[in-house]
Amino acid sequence: MKRKLKTISNKLKKASKAHASQAKQIDDIMKKQSALKLKKSPALKKLSEGCKAAARAKFDVYPSAYANIWASKQQKKGKC
């Protein structure tokens, strides 16, 4: 996607003044996006093996929604 935007931007710069300003806007947006480091959400972390094992021992059915929620809360607390 960045490559496509870069080529479009280069083509717009060569066109006219109005298009050159559009190219500048595209370049500014691309710089802002690259400057921002997207942080991964803690909710997207994988469950550790210890938490999975504790959930399997505690709940009859694993994987299940309740077991996964419990395991993720335990992992956040640092108990497994």
Task: Please describe what this structure looks like.
The chain has 4 helices and no strands. It has helices at residues 2-14, 17-35, 49-58, 65-77. The model has no long low-confidence stretch (mean pLDDT 82). The chain is rod-shaped. It has 2 domains: 2-35; 42-77, no CATH class. The chain has 80 residues and is an all-alpha fold.
C-alpha termini separation = 40 Å
- How many structural domains does the protein architecture include? 2
Count of helix runs: 4
The largest sheet is:
none
Report the C-alpha radius of gyration, rounded.
24 Å
Number of strands: 0
Question: Average pLDDT across residues?
Answer: 82
Output the keywords.
80 residues; mainly alpha
Brief account:
The chain has 80 residues and is mainly α. Helix 1 runs antiparallel to helix 2 and helix 3 packs across helix 4.
Secondary-structure topology with pairs:
Elements: H1 2-14, H2 17-35, H3 49-58, H4 65-77
